[in-house]
Structures are given as structure tokens and as C-alpha cells.
Design a protein that fits this description.
homodimer; alpha/beta; 434 Repressor (Amino-terminal Domain); Rossmann fold; 14% strand; disordered N terminus; DNA-binding
DNA sequence: GTGAAAGCGCTAACAA
DNA sequence: TTGTTAGCGCTTTCAC
């Protein structure tokens, strides 16, 4: 910040109060306030931070000037002199995904309640970006960094990325919604296995045995865990696992659509399908309709995440919910606790609930 | 930042390289680098910013140390001494809304390309928050502030809010995607009227005359403009406007659903309905299906925004697209140009394109 | 309770 | 080309 009008000196009236359209005002500082109030800058600072007593009379005089000039303390200077910036940085894989959007918002609210500010960068699922964004936050000296999805979802941690994060951890706590092997990160994640169990139990209770699983990549931890559980539960019931019923792919509409079309090419149709998320489920729905069948009468469809999509589809989706507020709060609290050296639980799992809507029903004969 | 280990002095080796799990490393500064490289801090700064020539030999020596220690320049200090922070702040009404998410991402990418960083705060559509978030960015000295939706969408500007923004404008340029009367804000917005025109022309070409408009509040500028155009085009064609066909409400699924149910209560059904956005359209679809009718055979449904929702519904929605990348780029460029005192166009309108999908067809008799 | 002064890490005149 | 120096705006000992 170059001084806009000379060096520290007298304040030149409510600078440009009326003609604000052209000139850029001189930035007001605590020195200006101090001078006009006839006190020292430190006193102004004290009334600002509020962590030291100032004689009432002076305090009011200062406060009045602050209001009068609409004084805004410079967060940069504050962060520079103070130990903490009271800010968190979150790097999200893709904020357009309602899942991440919901988690982010929950974090934001929780952080705000705890007096922290939260900034967001988006990595667009591109790894280079992910590291870049982390670097940006590091430069900005956020007190902690939160990684929502992306690399931290990988089943086997990328070595180079892990190394980078490990380096970051030496100065800034990092919390992830996945896992990052051999790295001192805090992990707050959804119990994918439990979610799958709820879905399977639900389907079993409707008499389903031929169950497909569509979408998702097995090199993604949560997907892998889901698959493991899917497989295990089938075996527990003595149901033979049909390899063709597991169609991996991506996490979007198209993956669901393509995956379901693949299923339709098989000799024997499943009576139910588990979509890797709500997006995939919509694609699956489409494919089924196009094949002239109906949900849930001919085929049941269930999925994960309970994003708003699950209420928009016809039929509405049976899916697993995560209590986003709770999830977000846990993430924010963990980050803040770590930032404040209060050593939070390094590994937290959050539970899930089944939300039954219209897309699931009794197995068709 | 309190010094973590003594004052400026010699660097104590690659501090904690191996046992990074517990100790927080001493923060490295350009002084450390300078000392070890045997140059002055300014030289280090020069190689960092790259805007002054440094003899190759020294430059390399410095660069090596930067790499070796994984030195991260402190953005706070940089912003404090420099004129600009090269950062923008965006306050979005609700990032879960795919429309805002898309715009934000487009802005982010454009800004990044121009060497700027972009931070996001969410106002959750709560006005108090909106002002608070603006304040936060002001404190952080972002070079410009972008307001995506929220108060700036209001048809009649809230006086108090305008006053606040006017005050902000005196130090930081503000660009909005709506309008803010009597305020020196830059405005980059979608031509709502043109969008409606495209939709109506499309419906007219299919022979529709009984056209409803569902969702949206008339005190929101874009909605108001849409309504004006809707009304005008009906009159142009000599079609009597049926007041009952205009059902205002919100911008979500429920508004569409409720609105369409209201329409079904009327004696004469419209043959087409214009939804205020994709969300409302999904609700409308649901209502129509529940009434045993089909889209577009019985009723055509068209909407605005072309968010990904329009491809997920069955049938897929005919809607208006905005070229989000272009839109985002315009916003970012305007903000940056303003920040750099290059006086951008204070009012930009972006065009729209019709995307015809499955939800619209010939008027049923 | 209050002020003086030093320092946070960086940049940019100004000299040399 | 390079180093010296003086800030940027705020917080925080340390005296008083």
C-alpha cells in the first residue's frame, strides 16, 4: 500500500465524503484515529482488539471516530503482526458438485460461529491446481487448510502430493475429508462402508438379491470401501456376486447412464441398482425409462449423498444422508482446534442415515 | 506472526526436515535466504517479483535456496507493502445454486489467467451477511469486490445497503451482476429480456398462445424484466394476457411445484409454461406428471439458465444458455480493469442463446 | 491505564 | 546491478 496522500499526518476531513465517484480516499489508519482522538495508536489498537482495558472516556472517543470515519482495520497488517489470521482455507475438488457445495457451506457457517473466516479455492479436480491452491493459502497464512475431495480421495496416495502436503503440515495444519497416507493430516470423513450397509439392508428387506453397483472408480477410497461392503454383504447372504453387475465409471450423470445401458445388455437384469451418487442415479433413471421400464416397479434405484438432486428426480431418490451441518462443523472444529494447538482427534468418522423416498420398492419377480 | 525462534539471524539448517510431525518450523523469510546467499534482502525480493534484473549468478544462488527451503513468500507482508494484493473477493448469494457456482468458477478461471486470486464468501441470501462479507473483503484489501446476486438483484435498491456499498466504492471497485442504483458500481449482467424473447419466440413458433410464467419475484430486476417482455410479446401478438397465468414465487423446486399446482386449479390450462429457472422447472415437471399429463405432449416447459439440471430431468429442458465462461470472464476482467484504474465499461450486458431440448413441442390442441 | 518503540515480512525509492 | 533504508498498518512488550 503506497500512501495515497502524504505520510502520516493530520486527517483531512471526511475525505471526499460527497463526491465519492472519482477520487480514491486516503486510507485511514489507527494513527489517524489516534491523532484526532488525542491518544496513542496503541490505545486505538486496544479498543479495537478489546483485550486490554482502556479508560471509558477515551474508549468512547476512539469508538466515535471509528464510526465516524467508517474505519476498517487492515487485516493484512493485523495478520502480519499477530500470530494468527483467524482464517481457514478450503480447496474443493469442484464446488459445482452439490455435495461439496453443501459441505463447504456447512464449514463456512461453523467457522464463522467460531470467529474464523473461510476462503475457497477450487481445484477443478486438476491436481496441479490442487497444489497451487494449497500454496496460495500457505502464502496467505491461513491458520489451517481444508482439503475437500480431490487427491485425498485416492485409494493409494500419490507420493509427490503427499510429500508436498507433508511439507505444508510443518507450518499449517491440514484437514482432509479423505485420507493421505504417511502424512500428519487430520481426517474427517464419512463412513462410506456404513452407508453402503444401510442401502444394502434396505434392499435386502425388499427381497432384492440381484443388485448392481454403478459408477465410481475403485481407486477412490470411499468407492473402494463401498464395493468391499457390497461384496461382503452379498457373500454373507450367500448370494453369488455377479462381476458384470459392478460397472465402475465416473461420478456424473453420463457414467450412470452409460453404466446402466451396459447392464441392460446382460442376459439377466438386476432388480435393484446402487448408484455411486445422486448424479449417477439420475443417469441411471434415464436409462431405465428409455428402456421402457419403471422405477421402482421394475427396478429399484438407491444412491449416496442426499443432495438436493434426490428430491428433484422423478421418482425421488432413496439415498443416504450425512447431516451436512454436523459434518461441516466437525471439519471446521478440527481445523480450528489444530490451528490453536488443541490437538483434535486425528481421525473422525461421521455416520449416515438412510432416507427412503420413492425410487426403491419390493423386488419384482 | 510472533517469531517462532529468535529474531532475524542465521538459518538453523533445514529445520525439522525429518521429524515434521510435531514441531512447527521457524518461518523462513527473505532475510534468511538473503543471508545464506550472501546477498541483500532486496535482491531476493527482486528475484521473487522478477521485475528488476539480477545478475544470473546471484539469481541462481537465491533460487536454489528458495527451492531448497521451500520458501513461501508471505502474501500478507507483500500486500501490506505493495499497492495491490492482486486478489478479488466475491460474495455469492448461494453457492449451492448451480447458476452461481458456474459463474463463480468461470470468474475464478478468468481471474487466475490474469494473475489474480479469487476468494469466495457466501451470504446465504441473508442481507446482514452480505454486508459483513463485503466488510471482510475490505479488511483483506482485495483489489475489487464482486457481488453475485443477492441485494443487487433487487428491483428497487435498498437504501441502506446502497449507502454501504457507496462507501466501499470509495476505496474498492465493486462489480455486480445486477444493479445498484445511485452507486458507482460496475454492472455485468445477463440480458434477461432477450432471454425471455427467445423463449417466447420459440413457443410462438410451436403455436403456443396460452403461456404461463411460473416462479420468481417481481421485485427482482431480472424477473421483472422477464415479465415485462413476456407481457409485451403477448400483446404484440394480440394475445390477451391472462393474469392468472403469472404465478410468482421463489426460485426453487417448491415454487415451481406449487405454482404449477395453482395453474392446474384454473378452468383453462395453458399449453406452455415458462419457468423462472431450471429449479422451478423441475418442480413444474413434477406437478405435471402427478396430474397425469406429459411434457411436451400435453404441456411444454421452458426455462432459464441452462444449468446442469436441464440435462438431468426427464424430459431434458429447453432453456436459455449464457456462456458462463464468457460471463465470468467479463466479470473478472471488469473487476480487474477497475482495480487497475483502467476504467472499464460501467455497464455490460451479456447475450443469451436458446438451447432446445426435449421439454418443448407443438401446442396441443 | 497509557505511550513509546520495536517488529511482523516484504517492496521500492534512492544511492552507490 | 546491488545494498541501504524507510515505510506499509497493526500488535505487543516494556516502562511509566
Amino acid at each position: 500500500m503506497k500512501p495515497v496522500a502524504g505520510t502520516r499526518g493530520a486527517l483531512i476531513g471526511p475525505a471526499g465524503q460527497e463526491n465519492g465517484y472519482v477520487m480514491k480516499d486516503k486510507t485511514i489508519t489507527i494513527y489517524d484515529i489516534a491523532q484526532e482522538a488525542g491518544v496513542s495508536p496503541s490505545t486505538v489498537s486496544r479498543v479495537l482488539t478489546g483485550n486490554a482495558h482502556v479508560r471509558r472516556e477515551k474508549r468512547e472517543r476512539v469508538q466515535n471516530l471509528i464510526d465516524k470515519y467508517n474505519f476498517v482495520p487492515n487485516a493484512l497488517a493485523k495478520g502480519l503482526s499477530d500470530t494468527m489470521t483467524r482464517s481457514l482455507g478450503v480447496v474443493a475438488a469442484d464446488i459445482r458438485n452439490p455435495f461439496y457445495a453443501a459441505v463447504f457451506m456447512a464449514c463456512e457457517q461453523a467457522a464463522e460461529r467460531l470467529g474464523y473466516t473461510i476462503g475457497l479455492f477450487n481445484s477443478l479436480n486438476r491436481v496441479e491446481n490442487e497444489e497451487e491452491q494449497i500454496e496460495k493459502f500457505r502464502q496467505q497464512k491461513t491458520d489451517a487448510i481444508i482439503l475437500l475431495g480431490g487427491r485425498v480421495d485416492d485409494l493409494v496416495t500419490n507420493t509427490q502430493f503427499a510429500e508436498h502436503v507433508r511439507d505444508v503440515c510443518r507450518t499449517t495444519p491440514v484437514v482432509v475429508t479423505g485420507k493421505l497416507d504417511r502424512t500428519p493430516c487430520y481426517s474427517v470423513r464419512i463412513d462410506a462402508s456404513a452407508a453402503m450397509r444401510q442401502l444394502m439392508d434396505h434392499l435386502f428387506s425388499f427381497g432384492h438379491e440381484r443388485i448392481a453397483m454403478i459408477g465410481g472408480r475403485l481407486d477412490v477410497t470411499s468407492t473402494y470401501e463401498k464395493y468391499q461392503t457390497y461384496s461382503a454383504m452379498l457373500h454373507e447372504r450367500g448370494i453369488r456376486e455377479n462381476g458384470e453387475y459392478v460397472v465402475s465409471g465416473g461420478y456424473d450423470y453420463q457414467s450412470g447412464y452409460d453404466g446402466m445401458n451396459r447392464i441392460f445388455a446382460l442376459r439377466e437384469r438386476p432388480t435393484a441398482v446402487v448408484a455411486i451418487n445422486d448424479f449417477a442415479a439420475t443417469g441411471i433413471l434415464r436409462s431405465i425409462i428409455e428402456h421402457g421400464l419403471s422405477v421402482p416397479d421394475d427396478i429399484s434405484v438407491v444412491s449416496f449423498d442426499n443432495t438436493y438432486l434426490s428430491e428433484l428426480t422423478i421418482p425421488k431418490l432413496t439415498t443416504t444422508d450425512y447431516d451436512y451441518d454436523h459434518f461441516g462443523r466437525l471439519i471446521a472444529e478440527t481445523a480450528i482446534a489444530a490451528a490453536e494447538h488443541r490437538e483434535p482427534d486425528p481421525e473422525v468418522r461421521v455416520g449416515t442415515t438412510l432416507v427412503v423416498r420413492e425410487s426403491s420398492g419390493p423386488a419384482s419377480v
